[in-house]
Each structure stands twice: as C-alpha cells, then as structure tokens.
Amino acid sequence: MLDILSCIRDDHDLRYVFAAGLICMLSSATTMLLLRHAVSGTGRARLNATLLAGAAGGFGIWATHFIAMLGYAPGIIAGYDLALTLASLLVAVLMISLGLVALTREAGSRHVSIALGAAITGLGISAMHYCGMMALQLPAQLDWRSGYVLGSFVAAIVPLVPAFHLVLSRPRQSRFAGAALLLAAAILALHFLGMTGLVITPSRLEAHGGTISPLTMDFIVGAISLGLLALAVTGLLLVRSTQAVAQASERQFSLLVKGISDYALYILDLEGRVASWNAGAERLKGYRADEVLGCAVETFYTPEDREKGLAFKALGIATVTGKFTGEGWRVRRDGSRFWAQVTIEVVKDERGHPIGFAKITRDVTQRKEDQDRIAAIGQQRDAALGHMHQGLCLFDADERLVLRNARFLEMYELEEDDLPAGLSHREVIRIVLEAKTGQTVSEEDVEKARQLVLNCRTNPAQAPIVSELSEEFVVSISSRKLPDGGWVSTFDDITNQRQSEARIAHMALHDGLTGLANRTCLNLWLDEALGQAQHLRRKLAVAVFDLNRFKDINDSFGHAWGDVVLQEIARRLRANLLEDEFAARLGGDEFGVGKPYTSDHQLNDFVNRLEKCFEVPFEHQGQTLHFGASIGVSAFPADGKERETLLNNADLAMYRAKGQLGENLCFYESSMDESARARRKLASDLRQAIERQELALLYQPQCFLEDGRLSGYEALLRWHHPLRGVISPVEFIPIAEEAGLIIQIGEWVLEQACREATRWPVDHRVAVNLSPIQLVQPDIAQTVTRVLIETGLPARRLELEITESAIITDKARALHNLRQIKALGVGIAMDDFGTGYSSLDTLQSFPFDKIKIDKSFLLQSNGNDQAQAIIRAVLALGQSLKIPVLAEGVETEEHLHLLLSEGCQEAQGYFLGRPGHAPSLTSAMPEPSAEPLIPIVGAA
Questions:
Q1: Which of 145, 186, 392, 484 has the fewest Cβ atoms within 10 Å of its own Cβ atom?
Q2: pLDDT (tens digit, 9 = 90+) per residue, 256-284?
Q3: Taking phi first (over 0 means left), then psi (-120 to 50 degrees means alpha), and beta for anything else, what does residue 631 get?
C-alpha cells in the first residue's frame, strides 16, 4: 500500500493525477448513464446505446491513462509510439463494447451476464493500460513486478461485478452514482497498481519515425476529453428524451381517467357499505380509503336526511329501476357540506344478478348557488353569469328569452347578435341546433326538444336532459321553474365525461392486448344470438380453440413474442370472419368464435376460414414462428340450448382435438360429455385420495437369476376407491396428469418408498416410477435430494424408472434433469424398453444404469420366435453396452428357463413374487444371511 502511495506522490505530477481522476469520473458517469439507458431499451435501441456506452468507456479509460502518463515523472518521456498508442485506444473501445454487450444481452442468466461482462471489460481496461505502456518511449528499460501486475488485473475486474449489478437493477440515482464510482475505482486502481509494479532501468533510447511527441499527445488527449464531454451531454439528452417519452405515455393514459377525475366514484355492496374508494372520492369527501371501507353509505348524508332514510330509499329506487339520479346536501369528513349530484347504478354479474352499486358523486355546489343566485337576485345576475362555467338561459312566463351568458354562446358557437333577447323558446332551440349541426332542423325535432325542456321545468325531480348532437358534443340540460312562471336552464358540457365513460365501457368488454371482445362480451353476444336463433329458427355454431406450441414460443423467445403472436391471430380472425360472425379472446391463448347459420355449407365454410388462420407461419424479427390450433365446435340446438352448455361442449371437443394425432378440428359428440363427466368425478375423488389414505404402495421383488438372491423391490401404486374398489394405475394415472395431481402423488410415492426402504435390514434397492410430467419439472432433482435427506436413504439404493415417452416429450429438459439426478448417485432405469420408436437413440443420449424389457415380449415368447428374438437382441445389446438388463413378466418356469439360457441377469414377475405389502411389515423380509427366495432351476 505504501508503494502505491509513494508511486502516486513521487512519480506523478498531482495536477495531472487530479485531471485524470476528473476525466475518469466523467467517463465512468457517462458510461453508466448510457448503460442504464441501454438496459431500459430493447432490440436495436438497446444495442446502439450499449455500443455508445462502450465507446464512451473506451475513450474515457484511454484518456485517463494518457493524462496520468503526461504527469508521470520518472525521467524524460521522449514520446509515444503511434501504432501502439492507436492500438491501445482501439483495444479499449472494442473490449469495453464487447463486455457491455455481454452484460446487456437479453437472454441467459443475469449473474452469468454480470460475471462475463465484468471479466471482458476488466480485461479490456488492463489490455489498454499495458498496450499504452508499451507505446511509451523512455530512455530506459521497462520491467514489471508480477505481483502488482496480477493485482492490477484483479482490481480491474472485481469492482465491476457490484457496479454492473447496480446498473442492471435499474434503481435510484444513488445506486447509479455508486456504479459510476466503482467503475472509476477499477480504472484508477488498475493504473496505479500497474505503475507501482513498473521498474525502470535507464538505458539508451532508440527513437523511430512513428513517434508522437508529448506536446502532440497533450492535444490528442485534450480533444478526446472534449469528446467525452460531448458524449456525456449526448447521454443526458438520451435519458431526458426517454423520460419525455415516458411522461408522454403517462399523459396519454391520464386521458382515460380525465373524464372521471372530478368525480367521487366508489362501489357499494348490496347492503350499502363502501367496498371501493377512488382518489376523486378522497379529494371530494376527505376520507382516506382505509378510513371509509366498510362504512354505510348514509355516513355521507346529513343528519336530517339520515332520519328520513334517503340513502336506503335511493338504493331501493336503483334496485327497482336500475338507476337513481338525484341531488342533495352531503357531508364531508370535516363536517362541511356541499350540494351533490348523485347517480347510483346497479352492478350486475355476467348472469344479470345484482352484486352491488356503482355510485358517482359530483360537487355541484357552485352550479346550485349560481342557479339560486339568478332566481333570487335579478340585479346581480350579470356578474354571476360571467363567472359561471356552465351555459345559462333565462326565459320569462311567455317563453321569451330574457338573457343568456357568454358560456352558452361559446358552447353553441354563436355570436352576440345571434341570440338577442325576446326570441321565443322555439326559435332559440332552432338556432342552437342548426348552429351546432350545420343542418336545417325540422319543426317536429324542435317541438320534441321544447317539450323535453318544459317537462323538466315542471318536474324538478326529473333527471337532467342529455343532448347528444354528436360524439364531440354532449350537453346535460337542467331547468328550474321560477316563481313568476318563467324558468332558468343551465347547460353543462359533459362531452369529456361521456367519452371517458365510452372508453371505460369499451375496456370492460374488450381485451386490452388484441382489441378483440373478452369473455364477458362474448357471453352477451351469445345470449343475444341464441335469442335471435330461437326466434328465426336458425342454428348457431360456437367454436373454441387454443394455440398449439404457444408455450414453446413464450419459453424460447419471451412473453413479448407471445403477445405479438396473439395480436397476429386477432388480425387474421378479423380478416377472415364475416360481418355476422363474432370473435373473442377468452384468456391466455384461448379464443372463442360464434357463427349464425342455416345450412351445413355455411358451417363448413366458417370452419374452413377458421382453419386458414393457422395455415401460414408468422415471420417476426427474422424468425419463422409455426403454430397451429386445436378447434372444438358445438352447435345450437343439437348440442345444447344454453350458452354455458354450448361453450362447455365446444371446450370438450377442443380437448378431444388436442388428443387426436393429425387432427386439429373436432365436433362435439354426446359421448364426450359422459366420458368427461366420469373423468371429472374420478379426478375429484383423486384429489382427496392422499388425505383419506386411499393410496397405498405394493412392493414386487426383483431377483438375480444367477443365484436367486433378492436384488430389490419395485414400488407399485394402488388406489383403493371407497366405492369402486381397487382402481388400476392405467386408469387413474392419466387423469392425475391431466388434473395436475401427478406432481403431488409422485412426491408422496417417492417419499413413502424411500422411507420404507430405510426399514429393511439389508441394502436392497427400491425402484420408483417417474411420470413424464415429473421428469420435465425444473425442480425434480431438488425434490429427489430433499426426499433422500429427509428419509435418510442412501442415493445408491434408489432407482428411478422412466419410460422412453417421458424423454421424447421434452428431450433436452428431460436429459438435463436426468443428468442432475444421476449426479446424486441415484440409479436410472429405462422401463418398457423396446416399445418406443427410437429406443436406441434414447440409449445413446443417456448412460442408463439398467434396461427393463417390457413384459409383453416375455408373455408372448411361448411359441413366438419373433418375441424370443427381440428378448435375445435386447440382452445382447445390454451386454455389448455393459448395461444390466432386467426382464419383466416372469410368470412361468418356461419364462425363467428362457431368461437363464439367454444370460439375463435380473427379473421380476408373478413366478418370482407377486406385489405385496411393505416388506418391513411381513415375515418374508430376508435377513442378510437368508437363503435365496426362489429355487434355482437345475440346482440340486
């Protein structure tokens, strides 16, 4: 440490050291700023920002080194070798860029990316330093102390690991500053450790033509330092541009809620208690959500209105009519009052059952005061009208216009002279309608509008009139009768509110990703379509489909690619469906489509167009994505007359299509429902089988044929159903796999078998079968490890049996998991060997510890030369590969003779021992010195 400090103090000009440190900090901050910008981007933008960060880092490290070298004072520096100086700059830029590209790659483990990026970047910093030192022209010989050189490499790499971790975590500014400091520390530590390790021996300088003078080097380093400053400014502009885009996105999103930002919007349950509370309600009424949730709605009413029970009367009206609208005084948390305009609507579920109330409250105190002031104070009306945010018209008892405010003229785009006082109510209506629509208005339309206003004037309890002249102009009109027979009408522009409500209604019935209708909207369409089909005596087809290989796309390329595929499917559906057909995304990769039809030809055409949506692969970012679909179709009235029945039957047909090889379309058949109902019942019973202790393990002995000794047991699962008795695994295991229960059952079997094996007095193996679904689970190796630790069974005594189909399902993942399990010391056996289509390829892919010949070959061996030939071939294959072979299905003495004559090592079957209860519970459990369990054929 003292050597390093001495090197900095004695061999360097501290002014240059300070300047180098500033340049180092500037370049480090610029690099980390650009790198953080790269992390937040994707694709080409991510790569460009990463390369820019690499350039900033490379130039900064190079400038730091040579500024420090300009202040290096062990003697006279004659100059710098041009080629090596340029090479050091090129090495710095390329290596730093390569390291940052490895760091910001979008695939693979984050920890691996950090380690790889730190290693490459640190080596780049080191390579630049020592290449730059080679460029130094001194009248001396340069030697290096290896300890400091190695220490400089370590100092260049180690700080980069936490620095890159801070950048990738996308945190607060404090962590960004920490990352920049760590990068600067790595650069400076490398330089001064390397310089401390330098030993200079004076000698004669041999100059050559390609040398840069120190003065020229001053100019070059200064220019690059200015370039770094430009890069820093560029990085700052990039970050600000990104922030501006994000802020613009936030502003766009705020437009969706702008229409309701001035309203208190909250949900009540059926008993009138607050179930949700928005920010507008908190601003208007002063209660926080945690203070008001669960409170009765009458909390916000005045004491007088509570005594009258107005709150529950309003809920009663909404329940009967579907909606309540009214006005009245309400109380805030601080006790102050405001005049509220209230709308209460019943919220219903998909079946039309009420589940609560949506309540919208708006503070219209100002409007009420305006109206009251106009009605009571005639002399001050002009001042009041000038401050109103609503349009206003005052009519006398003869229906003549007395006054109108500027806001009213502005709303209907009129000039002062367009509406002079004295016009009749009918003339005012015609003028404003023609001004806003640009069309001539009929007398019938004028009279209809006039009557609406008069009815509103004479009935104060009536809701305001809503005038929708266009999507861009919606007005709420309220009228109040005056004592002298006239009335005052106020006009409130609610266009933004209606547009927001329309957007919210669209969002509630449509899928945000694809723009298609959602499940709720499909249900509404089906209800209407079924009603029309019954009335018009037409048919209605319902198709449900989901995508094949969609999970592979998500796993291989990420969920963003999966979203692109779903959007492409939606586009193809819109392009192929007719006007009377309806498509919806039901969730995930599942879609539903409806089609009214009258003939089989129309149905076939509909199905053909639907299948065409999946015929052509999808090209995205240079990748060809292949996907198909499994389609199930049901029809009204043949397959059901209710919406839920049709959807359920189409779903059953879809799952039938998924299970049929080479078929992607299936029409519903009644037998599917019966089979599905039985399987659902069995799956429901199976969920409780473990808890009810209905599952049990039997153990079938496995023997060495050479001497008849017991070699181990195979654990066999049985289900003792309380009503159906013993159910074969062939029947319930596929159901367990479909219902997602096989993982839980498989772990239970593994744990029970291992725990039982620990009770045996001899070290026999226990064999347990693994389901294909278990085998491809990412944590299967950890599960096996946990069970072995918890039960205390040595790994060598456990043997896991898998079928070839388990590997074929997902070969790469299955083989990876098998290698992890085998590394524990657990034996791996291939079960049912010979029944698959690529058994030899499977054997070549993984070093199995045992091959089990499927029992079907031995059971057919009597008089069947082909079966005997297969048995001989498998045994010969096992001997040539040095893999033990165990034969299943030994049921007769002839079977035993055949296996002995062919040199089979192990076997199991009814002749050698039937499956029985746990060996630890029976007297047949042999002691270590016990005799063979089976007679040796031919023995004396």
A1: 484
A2: 333 455 678 889 998 889 988 888 888 88
A3: beta
- Statement: residue 524 has pLDDT above 80: yes
Sign of CA dihedral 593, 597, 602, 604: positive
| Phi then psi dihedrals of residue 661, to 5 deg | -75, 130
Q: What amino acid is encoded at 570 in this protein?
A: A
Q: Please indicate, yes or no, if residue 249 is contained in any of the structural domains.
A: no
Examine the domain organization and report whether 729 and 852 are in the same domain: yes
pLDDT tens across 900-933, in order?
Answer: 988 898 999 999 999 988 888 764 555 544 445 5
Edge-to-edge strand order for the sheet containing 211-212?
136-137, 79-81, 211-212
Specify the CATH number for the domain of residue 757. 3.20.20.450
Same domain, 355 and 335: yes
Residue 482, classed as helix, strand or coil, is coil
Nearest to 302 by CA among 273, 332, 342: 332
Determine contact, residues 814/833, Cβ cutoff 8 Å.
Answer: no
CA-based nearest residue to 890, from 867, 913, 866: 913
User: Residue 214: pLDDT above 80?
Assistant: no
**Same domain, yes or no, for 793 and 890?**
yes
Judge if 648 and 700 occupy the same domain: no
For the segment 208-233, the average pLDDT, to the nearest whole number, is: 57
- If we measure between CA atoms, which residue out of 570, 576, 550, 546 comes closest to residue 561? 550
Domain boundary among 335, 363, 391: 363
Domain match, 718 and 757 both: yes
Do 574 and 553 belong together in one domain?
A: yes
Instruction: Supply 433's token pair.
Output: 């309608």
Return the exposure string of 72-93: e unless at least 16 CB atoms fall within 10 Å of the residue's CB, then b.
Answer: beeeebebbbeebbebbbebbb
Positive or negative CA dihedral for 455, 457, 463, 464? Answer: positive
Tell me the CATH number at 412. Answer: 3.30.450.20
Range of the structural domain that residue 516 is part of: 510-681
Asked if 319 contacts 354 with a C-beta cutoff of 8 angstroms, the reply is yes
Nearest to 21 by CA among 192, 215, 194: 192
Q: Which of 319, 334, 363 is the last residue of a domain?
A: 363
State the Cα–Cα distance between residues 209 and 58, nearest whole angstrom: 27
β-pair type (885-888, 850-853) = parallel
- Domain assignment present for residue 786? The answer is yes
Label the pairing between strands 710-721 and 665-667.
Answer: unpaired
Q: Is the pLDDT of residue 428 over 80?
A: yes
Q: From CA 131, how far away is CA 925, in angstroms rounded?
A: 75
10 Å CB burial of residue 883 (0-12, 13-18, 19+) is middle
Q: What is the CATH number of the domain that holds 531?
A: 3.30.70.270
Residue 242: partners with Cβ closer than 8 Å, 6 or more residues away? 37, 40, 41
Two tokens at 43?
């694709």
CA nearest 767: which of 753, 778, 748, 785?
A: 753
In a domain, 570, yes or no: yes
Torsion sign, CA atoms 506, 508, 513, 515? negative
Span 86-113, pLDDT tens digits: 887 788 888 888 888 888 876 667 788 8
Band of residue 838 on the pLDDT scale cut at 50, 70, 90? very low
Would you say 195 and 130 are in contact if contact means Cβ atoms under 8 Å apart? Answer: no
Q: Give the Cβ contact number of residue 233 at 10 Å.
A: 11
Integer Cα distance of 590 and 522 in angstroms: 13
Q: Is the pLDDT of residue 148 over 80?
A: no
Pairwise CA distance, residues 790 & 22, whole Å: 59
Q: CA gyration radius for the chain?
A: 41
How many independent structural domains does the chain possess?
Answer: 5
Whether residue 616 is found in the same domain as residue 710: no
**124 and 20 in a common domain:** yes
> Does residue 177 form part of some domain?
yes
**Between these two residues, 759 and 256, which has the higher pLDDT value?**
759
Question: Does the pLDDT at position 777 exceed 60?
Answer: yes
Spatial distance between the Cα atoms of 655 and 734, rounded to a whole number of angstroms: 14
